[in-house]
Amino acid sequence: MLAYQFDRERYNRRMKWYLHDRFGMFIHFGIYSIPARGEWLRSTEEMPEELYLPYFEEFNPYALDARAWARAAKRAGMRYAVLTSKHHDGFCLFDTKTTDFKSTNTPYGRDIVADFLDAFRAEGIRVGLYYSVIDWHHPDFPQYGDRQAPLRNDPVAGSNEHRVFDRYLDYMHEQVREICTNYGKLDLLWFDFSYDDMRGEKWRATELMNMVRELQPDVITNNRLEVSGEGFGSLAQCDPTPYHGDFVTPERIIPPNGLFDVEGNPLAWEACITMNDNWGYFSHDTNFKPAPMLIHKLVECVSKGGNLILNVGPDATGRIPDQSLAILDEIGRWMERNSASIYGCGPAAGGPLEVERPEYGRITRNGDTYYFHLYENALGPMPLLGVPKERIASMRLLRDGTEVQLSNSWTHSDYPNIAFADLGPSPVLPDPVDTVLA
Ligand code: FHN
């Protein structure tokens, strides 16, 4: 295994923006948006490549407006965005020299990664690229299905199987080199995904990460090369030297109590969540989650020290579906009033107040300021707060600064602040009270 040096100081520096910004947009887009049955359709329908290639020949998302994508993310209060540069089908949204199976070789003809990066940077949103280490298009990688391990029965080194798979790894590493070299400074690299015994050095992970860290010294990466700790979606413990991955990526789950390394130190983590039940565009999937539920998920992630990256799957024209845009706008209206309880915030633990996790909602904290998010009607905040009354100096509605009269006996202004972030109107959620402590 190649040597590598984990630099804690450098790690803390590069993670600063990520741990502050908390909320990102995931974008799954590719030729699979034409059949519109999700990004796994080659596997789920066992579709041979000759039936898939016509989508490549047809691909022309004529209405794709990356700036409109970026503005939708900005309106929602998302501070970073990650686009699939290549998903498991092997189709590249960037102008790679390694293959003709790329967007610049379709009727659309454009380098979508370049357009995405330009548009989101122009809107002041940090940018990341998702890259699939699985590739059903490359001849040296099994056609589809993640259970077809390329190195079945762990052949001996130097065997033909190893040589063939090494050829694929050379290709994969070269593509990562291209995206780390040709598109300016990247803020985030999102690898996807390891499985069975295909993890760590089976991808030549240290060699890959040494190259990434040399070309993009400040980029942060997820843990899905799976060198440190098993399982990206599992709640397994991870080792405390995250050289091969800076944050853990529970998929579609929020860890009950956040995530910690084997020494008990809190880990950076990000829950990745779809708005409906699919990552890639799926025209019949109308099961979109209501915005308040997704706001709850965002608040819950931050209250447990994590981030939320929320997915959109643009359709074959390149448009983000109307249902997704409506959800993003409703989240944005909440964020406009309450983002102080998200950006720069984390768990209540570790602050000046000992306060239990309430069953009525979630608490986030930024330094000495606590934000109580009441999911249920506040029948009189005091009993809800679980905080000694003499520790509260004043209460305000976070959404509009309205004073909430509680008691005129509070005079201590040097106590920590508490603020409730109201979850806004919704058919399900009554307007809770929020408060500020000065
Ligand atoms: O197989 C992929 C899937 O298509 C999607 O990209 C998700 C996003 O986290 N990752 C893998 C499944 O875990």
Please specify the SSE layout and strand pairing.
Blueprint: H1 8-21, E1 23-27, H2 41-44, H3 49-58, H4 66-75, E2 80-86, H5 112-122, E3 126-132, H6 160-181, E4 188-192, H7 205-215, E5 220-221, E6 269-274, H8 291-303, E7 306-312, H9 322-338, E8 361-366, E9 369-374, H10 381-385, E10 417-420
Parallel strand pairs: 1-2, 1-7, 2-3, 3-4, 4-5, 6-7, 9-10
Antiparallel strand pairs: 8-9
The structure holds ligand FHN.
Search tags:
13% strand; binds ligand FHN; single chain; 10 helices; seven-stranded parallel beta sheet; 438 residues; disordered C terminus; three-stranded mixed beta sheet; alpha/beta
Structure description:
Belongs to the glycosyl hydrolase 29 family. This protein is an alpha/beta fold and 438 residues long. The protein contains ten helices and ten strands. It has helices at residues 8-21, 41-44, 49-58, 66-75, 112-122, 160-181, 205-215, 291-303, 322-338, 381-385; strands spanning 23-27, 80-86, 126-132, 188-192, 220-221, 269-274, 306-312, 361-366, 369-374, 417-420. A seven-stranded parallel sheet has the order 5-4-3-2-1-7-6, sandwiched between helices. Strands 8-9-10 form a three-stranded mixed sheet. The N and C termini lie far apart (54 Å). 46% of the residues are buried. The model is unreliable at 378-383, 407-416 and 424-438 (pLDDT under 50). Bound molecules: ligand FHN. Ligand FHN binds at residues 39-40, 192-193, 251, 272, 279.
